[in-house]
Amino acid sequence: MSQKVTPSMVSLKSLPADYRFDGENSSRASVGLRNGVSQAGDSEDSPYSGHGVSLEEQSLTDDVDPGAATMPLPQSDERRWSDTSAYARKKVLQSWVQLPNGNWELGKILSTSGEESVISLPEGKVIKVISETLVPANPDILDGVDDLMQLSYLNEPSVLYNLNYRYNQDMIYTKAGPVLVAVNPFKEVPLYGNRYIEAYRKKSNESPHVYAIADTAIREMIRDEVNQSIIISGESGAGKTETAKIAMQYLAALGGGSGIEYEILKTNPILEAFGNAKTLRNDNSSRFGKLIEIHFSESGKISGAQVQTFLLEKSRVVQCAEGERSYHIFYQLCAGASPGLREKLNLTSAHEFKYLGQSNCYSINGVDDAERFHSVKEALDIVHVSKEDQESVFAMLAAVLWLGNVSFTVIDNENHVEPVADESLSTVAKLIGCNINELKLSLSKRNMRVGKDTIVQKLTLPQAIDARDALAKSVYSCLFDWLVEQINKSLAVGKRRTGRSISILDIYGFESFDKNSFEQFCINYANERLQQHFNRHLFKLEQEEYIQDGIDWTRVDFEDNQDCLSLFEKKPLGLLSLLDEESTFPNGTDLTLANKLKQHLHSNSCFRGDREKLFTVVHYAGEVTYDTTGFLEKNRDLLHLDSIQLLSSCSCHLPQAFASSMLIQSEKPVVGPLYKAGGADSQRLSVATKFKGQLFQLMQRLGNTTPHFIRCIKPNNVQSPGLYEQGLVLQQLRCCGVLEVVRISRSGFPTRVSHQKFARRYGFLLVENIADKDPLSVSVAILHQFNILPEMYQVGYTKLFFRTGQIGVLEDTRNRTLHGILRVQSSFRGYQARCHLKELKMGISILQSFVRGDKVRKEFAELRRRHRAAATIQSQVKSKFARKQYKGITDASVLIQSAIRGWLVRRCSGDLRWLKSVGTKTNESGEVLVKASVLSDLQRRVLKSEAALREKEEENDILQQRLQQYENRWSEYETKMKSMEEIWQKQMRSLQSSLSIAKKSLAVEDSARNSDASVNASDATDWDSSSNQFKSQASNGGGGRQQQQPMSAGLSVIGRLAEEFEQRAQVFGDDAKFLVEVKSGQVEANLNPDRELRRLKQMFETWKKDYGGRLRETKMILSKLGSEESSGSMEKVKRKWWGRRNSTRY
């Protein structure tokens, strides 16, 4: 192997000059680096960097250009890219002629004499031009090619003509090497939808398209495990926003399935409504930068996304140029709000609001704002913004509009003002939820802190208007940031993050108007930074890599914009530094800023000072003159602390969140001088410094990705379909460096692979063994085996460099080989699987037969045992029934026989005489002869009598059983009744004894009272007078009638208790006797005697308890009466009586 490889390697012209090869021992090779360049390792710039591609991912790597690059932006003169020569002019019959108006026209060369040529134009006009100015045209067969690299003559008119040719046929996408050029058609074109997505996914359509760029990005992300980025650039109105949405649609279609992709697509209506506006050049101009980072899972499915925004144009909220509009959402809210929402927000038409009416433009042709508003509400629902939050968002929008209608009135001679307390002011206070007096104070006064004191300063009319506008701009800006935050929460990746992502950058394009302010200054600075990223990726890094790897390369010149970036970013004498410095001075003005810039930057080649407040910057895309009016105020972008405190005191949660966010931002540390205005304590980053930091972070993020560039071209300024302005398109092509891109791609080596990775990826394709070879030897052997021409590649110190399309041959061979290997492996594995399956089936069949046989044998044995048991049981039962039946028949027969015989005997004996008298003859044996009819009749009678006898016997048995049951139950009832009667008798006797004892006690007491009365007359008199009061209520009104004594009243009470006892005893006794008679059957009644007995017992117990209680109450009353009657000597009698009473208690 070494002897074959060595001569071929020596003869390679593409090897570096310092390459040294050991001819005999080919196991090692050394590559020397010129100019002291150290040995480099594996470069990660290779499209095959990272891990090898698995067989499952192989389908995603087919036909993918590994060297996808990007697009440049320098201006170039015509001669650099003319590709003309004297020979070409002689051989080419058609050439491009530049007319006096600057347009190019295709003409036919009629004759050439000296330095002049005669050209015939398509209109039939013949002109004479200098031969050096002619530019050769491509043959007709190349008209409308989809890649500018295929043009034989690469020059400006040929590129313009090719783009125009395709544009007229609605083929708006054209490749320029690794860059996709998209021309805005300003109309709907049939190039999108599921059918096209499926075609590009299956690679059945290879024409240039945004789908193809997105497909390349997602495939390279999976294959190389490197994050990707799609950078969309172009002027305002070139179609960047729509292109970004188309790319997102394709990524959502390929990576969809989890449902999150639908939410990602629905972010577009929200961000467009709140961040886009109509300008003079574009009906849907993005007034902010947007980076959408879409995250993917390991399987290539979308797992989440994150949105980052840059530099929202806040000034558009409060001022618009003539013919332009503010942000779309204001007009959509006024047009599409429901009646209930309109009444709640006190909305009127857009003409009534000053912020919207100052431009005299309220609608866009072909756009229904009301319908768009409903789409925005639907999108808010999809990204999980609640109905309450949506109403709060609309309230903030209405508050901003009503703030513009707040007017002021002068209150003194110093032009101090205060807000007019009209509908506008009250509506703003209601919508944001603040006190109207606090709102008036924040718009008309300012608290300034001087040392430890606070001074209240009244505002003049310009200051009050600025404070009002600043509040409106801050509320809208915070609302926009809050919405982006809610979207990011809805699209959050969380634990699903895998590190794989595709970022889509849609940022404002280069802008140059008649009057350019601070917004254009920042926008063009961002484009300068993006242009440098483009240049570094496509020009600088590529050419530097060629030189470092020792590649024979003709350097391509391009315009580097590093000088312009230095003008912006240099410290301390850069545009941004000087702007921040001037913003720190309270007395700084826009004029002093302009003078300072002219003083310090007049020597810079990219800067030119103009009159008054004007200065000019030479950008990569051309010169732009800026007016410093408003620069300082917009750069400071200060909202006074009074306004922040007003928002924090609001009852609505959104203004409170805005105030909290602004306070957090103000607390961030700032490098350099700080600006304090109006006594505000907050220290804030300037807008320029903040934007610069965001750009550096953006560039750092994009630098870690593989970029894919899409350059959008605007064909005309009037947004008319079918109109193609050569001058405008040519200017944009020069700005984006399309021709330089094609030149480098055509003359360079876009595909590069390190030796190790190339050998590892394609080494298995070699016929001979390569186990002991170094990567470089293996790589060269692969190139020779596949007959790749030396001019189509070069071997560097660390990498192999290929021209466009050369790696495809190896990839196709590799894919075919891998597919063949897979087919062989699948066939062999299928054979093995089938054999194994056959063995398994045989083993399973044998095992099943044994198991089933054992199971059947067990079931048969059990069935036989059960059959024998059933037969035995049946035989026993049948024999029992047979014996019983036989016995019954035998008994019946004997009975019948006995009856018949008795009857016969009785009849024969009774009729013997009669038989003799009638001369009945007897037989020889002496037997009596009986008639057959008589015998049968006797037999029937006997059978009937036997049946009747059996029925009577059965009825007799049943009656005897019932009689026995009744006797048993009657004995139980008698026992229970006897026990109850005994209990009742005991209770009655106890009650009677109690009554008798009570009567005796009362009688003894009466006798004692009478005896004591005769001894103590005076005491008795007192006793009678007090005791007679007991029956005072029983008297009938007679004045002279004497009252009964208390003890006689007690006797009457005891008598009534005794009567009640006798009555109750009689009633309970009668009821119990009646129930016993019912139960014994002596009396018939429709009731349950057992239940009634239980109820009667309960009633008796209740009455007994009640009766005992009344007895105790009577005792207490009598004792009380006795205590009142007795006094002196009567106490002894009372104690004696009660002593006897107690001694006789039972």
From TrEMBL:
<feature type="region of interest" description="Disordered">
    <location>
        <begin position="1008"/>
        <end position="1048"/>
    </location>
</feature>
<feature type="coiled-coil region">
    <location>
        <begin position="935"/>
        <end position="983"/>
    </location>
</feature>
<dbReference type="InterPro" id="IPR001609">
    <property type="entry name" value="Myosin_head_motor_dom-like"/>
</dbReference>
<keyword id="KW-0677">Repeat</keyword>
<feature type="domain" description="Myosin motor">
    <location>
        <begin position="143"/>
        <end position="815"/>
    </location>
</feature>
<dbReference type="GO" id="GO:0016459">
    <property type="term" value="C:myosin complex"/>
</dbReference>
<comment type="similarity">
    <text>Belongs to the TRAFAC class myosin-kinesin ATPase superfamily. Myosin family. Plant myosin class VIII subfamily.</text>
</comment>
<dbReference type="GO" id="GO:0005524">
    <property type="term" value="F:ATP binding"/>
</dbReference>
<dbReference type="InterPro" id="IPR036022">
    <property type="entry name" value="MYSc_Myo8"/>
</dbReference>
<keyword id="KW-0518">Myosin</keyword>
<dbReference type="GO" id="GO:0003774">
    <property type="term" value="F:cytoskeletal motor activity"/>
</dbReference>
<keyword id="KW-0505">Motor protein</keyword>
<dbReference type="Pfam" id="PF25369">
    <property type="entry name" value="SH3_VIII-1_N"/>
</dbReference>
<dbReference type="Pfam" id="PF00612">
    <property type="entry name" value="IQ"/>
</dbReference>
<feature type="region of interest" description="Actin-binding">
    <location>
        <begin position="695"/>
        <end position="717"/>
    </location>
</feature>
<feature type="binding site">
    <location>
        <begin position="234"/>
        <end position="241"/>
    </location>
    <ligand>
        <name>ATP</name>
    </ligand>
</feature>
<dbReference type="InterPro" id="IPR036961">
    <property type="entry name" value="Kinesin_motor_dom_sf"/>
</dbReference>
<dbReference type="GO" id="GO:0005516">
    <property type="term" value="F:calmodulin binding"/>
</dbReference>
<keyword id="KW-0175">Coiled coil</keyword>
<dbReference type="InterPro" id="IPR004009">
    <property type="entry name" value="SH3_Myosin"/>
</dbReference>
<dbReference type="InterPro" id="IPR027417">
    <property type="entry name" value="P-loop_NTPase"/>
</dbReference>
<keyword id="KW-0009">Actin-binding</keyword>
<feature type="compositionally biased region" description="Polar residues">
    <location>
        <begin position="1010"/>
        <end position="1035"/>
    </location>
</feature>
<dbReference type="GO" id="GO:0003779">
    <property type="term" value="F:actin binding"/>
</dbReference>
<keyword id="KW-0112">Calmodulin-binding</keyword>
<keyword id="KW-0067">ATP-binding</keyword>
<dbReference type="GO" id="GO:0030048">
    <property type="term" value="P:actin filament-based movement"/>
</dbReference>
<dbReference type="InterPro" id="IPR000048">
    <property type="entry name" value="IQ_motif_EF-hand-BS"/>
</dbReference>
<dbReference type="Pfam" id="PF00063">
    <property type="entry name" value="Myosin_head"/>
</dbReference>
<feature type="domain" description="Myosin N-terminal SH3-like">
    <location>
        <begin position="90"/>
        <end position="139"/>
    </location>
</feature>
<feature type="region of interest" description="Disordered">
    <location>
        <begin position="1"/>
        <end position="81"/>
    </location>
</feature>
<keyword id="KW-0547">Nucleotide-binding</keyword>
<feature type="compositionally biased region" description="Polar residues">
    <location>
        <begin position="1"/>
        <end position="11"/>
    </location>
</feature>
<dbReference type="InterPro" id="IPR057535">
    <property type="entry name" value="MYO1-3_N_SH3"/>
</dbReference>
<protein>
    <recommendedName>
        <fullName>Myosin motor domain-containing protein</fullName>
    </recommendedName>
</protein>
